[in-house]
């Protein structure tokens, strides 16, 4: 759970009075969905602890809990006292400590803005996790989308906030990788003009319309930001605004529709590729079709590109580029 940054409450027995069945030092974990793993007392104590743990997750505050059949006349500051309703009438004192209450911020990219977000996020009570093709041991050995998804696998069941800041290198892959995640916010660092191209590429790749509409692009509040630090600040301010105000806005995470790059290539044995070295129809660069991370199939032909920007421009209007080839 720590690796996945999932919120939970660690419960520890710090004192007990017979005939309580718990022992000092006993521990249990209470998950966000109300499940208890471990033992800190019998059925009556268990239900009380789960309810209190849920409250700890909501507030983010630690709690000292005293469960006793005879509440003291004077309750010390910081102690929550609840009646023990079981017939055994034992007393147990527990310490509840919420973990990973701060929300997860998934950052995609290796750009200066991505690094600035990673550095600044903890100051705004977010837990940053940055993924990038550049972090892969060998990014040329697999499809960009699959590489990013493998880095995201630990977070698929965690509700998070997301920002894609690849500066045009693999924006589409970064966004599509997040389609499986539960998200409160998803922003793309881009310009309005480029977003029109990227959104068309997402649609062509089979991304759900609701997912495309959920994306905030360009990401960040309009504060006239200049430079990576200020742009990161504008994005974090927008995320905080979403967190505090738009409580019901969320992407629940859905399987990606449409054919993946891997599936397209595996099904292309009988399709036309003149050679492994091809020309990017957008910028004119030569690329190795086997090694390039950016491909697109059209009318039986696999086209190779130097970057996702060229591929997205091609996907938006193929005829504009094929007429020159």
TrEMBL record:
Signal peptide: none annotated. Residues 280-318 form the TRASH domain. SMART domains: TRASH (SM00746). InterPro entries: Ferritin-like_SF (IPR009078), MoCofactor_Util/Proc (IPR052698), RNR-like (IPR012348), TRASH_dom (IPR011017), XdhC_CoxI (IPR003777), XdhC_Rossmann_dom (IPR027051), YHS_dom (IPR007029). GO terms for molecular function: oxidoreductase activity. It comes from the Bacteria. PANTHER family: ALDEHYDE OXIDOREDUCTASE MOLYBDENUM COFACTOR ASSEMBLY PROTEIN, XANTHINE DEHYDROGENASE SUBUNIT A-RELATED. This is Xanthine dehydrogenase accessory factor. It comes from Parageobacillus toebii NBRC 107807.
């Amino acid at each position: 759970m720590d690796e996945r940054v999932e919120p939970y409450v660690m419960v520890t027995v710090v004192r007990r009075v017979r005939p309580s069945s718990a022992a000092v030092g006993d521990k249990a974990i209470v998950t966000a969905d109300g499940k208890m793993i471990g033992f800190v007392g019998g059925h009556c104590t268990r239900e009380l602890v789960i309810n209190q743990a849920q409250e700890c997750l909501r507030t983010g505050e630690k709690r000292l809990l005293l469960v006793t059949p005879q509440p003291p006349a004077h309750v010390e500051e910081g102690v929550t006292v609840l009646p023990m309703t079981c017939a055994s009438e034992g007393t147990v004192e527990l310490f509840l400590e919420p973990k990973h209450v701060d929300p997860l911020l998934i950052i995609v990219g290796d750009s200066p803005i991505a690094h600035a977000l990673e550095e600044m996020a903890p100051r705004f009570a977010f837990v940053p996790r940055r993924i990038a093709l550049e972090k892969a041991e060998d990014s040329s050995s697999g499809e960009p989308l699959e590489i990013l998804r493998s880095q995201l696998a630990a977070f698929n069941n965690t509700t998070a906030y997301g920002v894609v800041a690849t500066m045009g290198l693999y924006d589409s892959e970064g966004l599509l990788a997040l389609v499986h995640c539960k998200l409160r916010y998803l922003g793309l660092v881009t310009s309005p003009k480029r977003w029109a191209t990227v959104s068309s590429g997402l649609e062509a790749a089979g991304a759900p319309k609701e997912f495309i509409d959920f994306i905030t692009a360009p990401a960040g509040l309009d504060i006239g930001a200049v430079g990576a630090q200020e742009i990161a600040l504008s994005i974090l301010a927008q995320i905080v605004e979403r967190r505090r105000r738009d409580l019901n806005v969320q992407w629940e995470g859905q399987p990606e529709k449409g054919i993946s790059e891997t599936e397209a290539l595996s099904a292309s044995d009988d399709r036309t590729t003149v050679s492994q070295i091809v020309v990017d129809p957008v910028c004119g660069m030569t690329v190795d079709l086997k090694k390039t991370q950016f491909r697109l199939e059209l009318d039986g032909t696999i086209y190779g590109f130097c970057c996702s920007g060229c591929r997205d421009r091609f996907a938006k209007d193929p005829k504009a580029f094929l007429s020159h080839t």
